[in-house]
């Protein structure tokens, strides 16, 4: 059963990200001019200003660098409280904010190795696959 989630960002470049997630692939924008990897999605390179990107496949492996647990209901009962989030430093360099799968904040440790997984979700735009991270 799909998890109900707050609306994700859609539109130029964002749709491409979600299409890859739907295929079980974590891909991020790579600047065609300077090679800088981007997350979140950008419309121009934050390093050199170029506007041409390719979508580079990420390994999906990383390490937890920080985490936060939300104990207030910000979404009108849509998400279970408490709601854990983690900041993952991907092997390729960018950091990625997501949710843990199969563990909670009580089990987290700094530099904990994790790998990407995709879960079925839905928002007002419909069904999609969301990248989350599980223990590696």
What does this structure look like?
Helix content is 7%, strand content 42%. It is mainly β. The strands form two sheets. Strands 1, 5, 6, 7, 8 and 9 form a six-stranded mixed beta sheet that branches. A hairpin with a 4-residue loop joins strand 6 and strand 7. The mean pLDDT is 96.
> Given the structure, what is the number of helices?
1
What structural class results from the helix and strand content? mainly beta
Detail the poorly predicted runs: none
Molecular shape: globular
Distance between the termini: 24 Å
Q: What is the chain-wise order of helices and strands?
A: EHEEEEEEEE
Percent of residues in β-strands: 35-45%
Mean pLDDT: 96
What does the main sheet amount to? 6 strands, mixed
> Cα-atom Rg, whole angstroms?
15 Å
State the helical fraction.
under 10%
**How many strand elements?**
9
């Amino acid at each position: 059963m799909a998890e109900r989630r707050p609306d994700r960002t859609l539109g130029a470049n964002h749709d491409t990200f979600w299409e890859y997630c739907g295929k079980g692939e974590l891909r991020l924008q790579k600047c065609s001019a300077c090679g800088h990897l981007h997350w979140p999605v950008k419309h121009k390179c934050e390093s050199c200003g170029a506007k041409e990107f390719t979508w580079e496949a990420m390994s999906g492996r990383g390490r937890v660098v920080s985490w936060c647990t939300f104990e207030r209901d910000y979404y009108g009962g849509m998400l279970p409280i408490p709601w854990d989030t983690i900041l993952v430093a991907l092997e390729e360099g960018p950091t990625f904010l997501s949710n843990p799968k199969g563990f909670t904040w009580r089990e987290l440790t700094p530099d904990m190795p994790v790998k990407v997984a995709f879960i079925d979700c839905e928002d007002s735009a419909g069904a999609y696959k969301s990248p989350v991270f599980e223990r590696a």
